[in-house]
UniProtKB/TrEMBL annotation:
This is Bifunctional hydroxyethylthiazole kinase/thiamine-phosphate diphosphorylase. Pathway: Cofactor biosynthesis; thiamine diphosphate biosynthesis; 4-methyl-5-(2-phosphoethyl)-thiazole from 5-(2-hydroxyethyl)-4-methylthiazole: step 1/1; Cofactor biosynthesis; thiamine diphosphate biosynthesis; thiamine phosphate from 4-amino-2-methyl-5-diphosphomethylpyrimidine and 4-methyl-5-(2-phosphoethyl)-thiazole: step 1/1. It catalyses: 2-[(2R,5Z)-2-carboxy-4-methylthiazol-5(2H)-ylidene]ethyl phosphate + 4-amino-2-methyl-5-(diphosphooxymethyl)pyrimidine + 2 H(+) = thiamine phosphate + CO2 + diphosphate; 4-methyl-5-(2-phosphooxyethyl)-thiazole + 4-amino-2-methyl-5-(diphosphooxymethyl)pyrimidine + H(+) = thiamine phosphate + diphosphate; 2-(2-carboxy-4-methylthiazol-5-yl)ethyl phosphate + 4-amino-2-methyl-5-(diphosphooxymethyl)pyrimidine + 2 H(+) = thiamine phosphate + CO2 + diphosphate; 5-(2-hydroxyethyl)-4-methylthiazole + ATP = 4-methyl-5-(2-phosphooxyethyl)-thiazole + ADP + H(+). Condenses 4-methyl-5-(beta-hydroxyethyl)thiazole monophosphate (THZ-P) and 2-methyl-4-amino-5-hydroxymethyl pyrimidine pyrophosphate (HMP-PP) to form thiamine monophosphate (TMP). Its cofactor is Mg(2+). In the N-terminal section; belongs to the thiamine-phosphate synthase family.
Length: 510
């Protein structure tokens, strides 16, 4: 028996499309969907491309037992025979599958009918169709690995055009966006994909839940991204200073030859667990470990590095594991600028960290040049915050710019004006040793590994403040850079084992 549904009140906000082939090996398909249902998925589509009819019906029947428990409608992709056999709540048909009219005729008037639209012409046809279509699946928003990419990528621009057609032609028709959506990009995408005040009714996701090792958390975080877009409300769990020593996160470093030894020591000092690896075959193993992160530093790249970098960022992005990107000396030469551009285009980062020249170069600020790894530009705070904010919004990342005063800008949680934080203190000897910025990247990475994605800004502030404080304390006891290195490691070690307290470091949040 199917659920009794009121078509006017169907909640499309978090629409899960299943894919049994990407569920992690150790996990069960039905459990994965059930966890999603327990944590806020509002509608489910069973999509199976490689099952014969008997198995498909069997799977649909089992899944229906589960979705009914949560009072959530189950739609079947493409196969009307399967939907009818198990009395599902509806079907979804793609452009290449079957005409909407035929589908409606076969399923009757009461079931939910959804169709995929890829362009304005499809949308117009759906509006004019004699079949009653309940909702449109608009996509692909972005590129995805779930479906073979034969369909055009619409991007927010293409989606807006379809919404305009819908707004002018049949505003009561419901819609969801699909294709490459995940907790990182949903908020911004839903916000951008509006025509006037008209927006879609939800976001459809596949791999960010189905492929997750923690489908409950993945669903909660995805739902939160959606709520942020629709309500713009901060439904945050309160942020707590993380305990790195207790949680012992694993940070995978792909870092420069100069920074390796120091970064590993600093990471251990604060209670983290570093692993230096450039063996791309093992990246997927690290990316699957819970409480992990990647510190991606391109300081001493070689001609052989690029492929390895790409492999790392795609693995970590696919598993939604935080990455901090440190574009060392990215503005120094044309080849470095090009590689930095590639890194930004290829990956999503929780944090991008660099000194002033690096960040300004990455942001494409005019007139920025660099000599080697050093930074010396003459910009005031207002100018800097403006440059950082643009980069933060563009990359949807938290930007950390280091120097005498560190400046952190949030591009993840969308607010009218990105949140900004200034941190001062530390000691000038911090700038007189090599790789202190690089090692800070590893500290931030350790914090990211144990914090929710939505607390990236707070986590970055905590990591930078700890670092500054240790720098100040070490500076008071040091004769020069040599003794500073040792004292600094000691202070990081001690501070990490004490209750959170800052004495000399000043945090100003705008
Ligand atoms: N003059 C200073 N006073 C206080 N803190 C400083 C000073 N210079 C650098 N720092 C601190 O040192 C750390 C590294 O910052 P810096 O800007 O030197 O990085 P970087 O140049 O990218 O480092 P790297 O040598 O790894 O390339 C940051 O925590 C920063 O706050
Ligand atoms: C000195 C140096 N050269 C490339 S990376 C690096 C470490 C500090 O950025
Ligand atoms: Mg420096």
């Amino acid at each position: 028996m199917s659920l009794t549904i009121d078509k006017n009140t169907i909640d499309y906000s978090l629409y899960l499309v299943t894919n049994s082939e990407i569920v992690p090996e150790s996990l069960d398909f039905y459990d994965q969907v059930e966890k999603a249902l327990q944590n806020g998925v509002t509608i489910v589509q069973l999509r199976e491309k490689n099952l014969d009819t008997d198995h498909f019906i069997d799977r649909a029947r089992k899944l229906h037992q589960i979705t009914k428990k949560y009072n959530v409608p189950l739609l079947i992709n493409d196969r009307i025979d399967v939907a009818l056999a198990i009395d599902a709540e509806g079907v979804h048909v793609g452009q290449d599958d079957m005409a909407a009219e035929e589908a409606r005729e076969k399923i009757g008037q009461d079931k939910i009918l959804g169709v995929t639209v890829n362009n304005e012409r499809d949308a117009m046809a759906a509006i004019k169709s004699t079949a009653r279509i309940d909702y449109l699946g608009i996509g692909s928003a972005y590129s995805t690995t779930t479906k073979e990419m034969t369909k055009p990528i619409l991007g927010p621009g293409g989606i807006k055009k379809i919404l305009e057609v819908l707004h002018d032609g049949k505003p009561e028709m419901k819609s969801v966006i699909i294709g490459g959506l995940n907790k990182y990009n949903i908020t911004r995408t839903l916000n951008e994909c509006r025509y006037k005040d008209f927006c879609t009714n939800g976001a459809a996701v596949v791999s960010c839940i189905m492929a997750s090792h923690d489908a409950s958390l993945a669903t909660k975080e995805t739902l939160r991204s959606i709520n942020l877009a629709y309500d713009n409300e901060e439904a945050l769990h309160p942020y707590k200073h993380p305990n790195i020593v207790q949680e012992k996160p694993l940070t995978h470093f792909i870092t420069n030859a100069v920074a390796k030894y120091f970064s590993a020591n600093v990471c251990i000092a604060i209670g983290g667990s570093p692993i230096m690896s450039e063996l791309s075959e093992e990246f997927s193993f690290f990316a699957k470990i819970s409480k992990g992160s990647l510190c991606m530093n391109t300081g001493t790249m070689s001609n052989a590095s690029i492929h390895m970098y790409k492999k790392a960022i795609s693995e970590y992005n696919a598993h939604m594991v935080p990455i901090i990107y440190d574009p060392v000396a990215c503005g120094a030469t044309q080849p470095r600028r090009e590689i930095a551009k590639m890194m930004i285009e290829h990956g999503r980062y929780s944090v991008i960290k660099g000194n002033m020249a690096e960040i300004c170069s990455l942001a494409g600020a005019n007139g920025v040049t660099m000599r080697g790894v050093d930074s010396d530009l003459n910009l005031n705070d207002l100018e800097i915050v403006d440059i950082l904010s643009k980069l933060a919004v563009k990359t949807q990342a938290v930007i950390v710019m280091t120097g005498k005063k560190d400046i952190i800008v949030d591009g993840i949680i969308p607010t009218k004006k990105p949140r900004v934080c200034f941190i001062s203190g530390g000691h000038e000897l911090m700038g007189k040793i090599t790789a202190s910025g690089c090692a800070l990247g590893g500290v931030i990475a350790s914090y990211l590994a144990v914090c929710s994605y939505f607390h990236t800004f707070e986590a970055a502030i905590d990591a930078v403040a700890l670092y500054k404080e240790a720098g100040y304390l070490a500076g008071q006891q040091s004769k020069g850079p040599g003794t500073f290195l040792a004292n600094f490691t000691d202070e990081l070690y001690e501070l990490s084992r004490k209750p959170y307290r800052l004495l000399s470091t000043n945090i100003i949040r705008e």
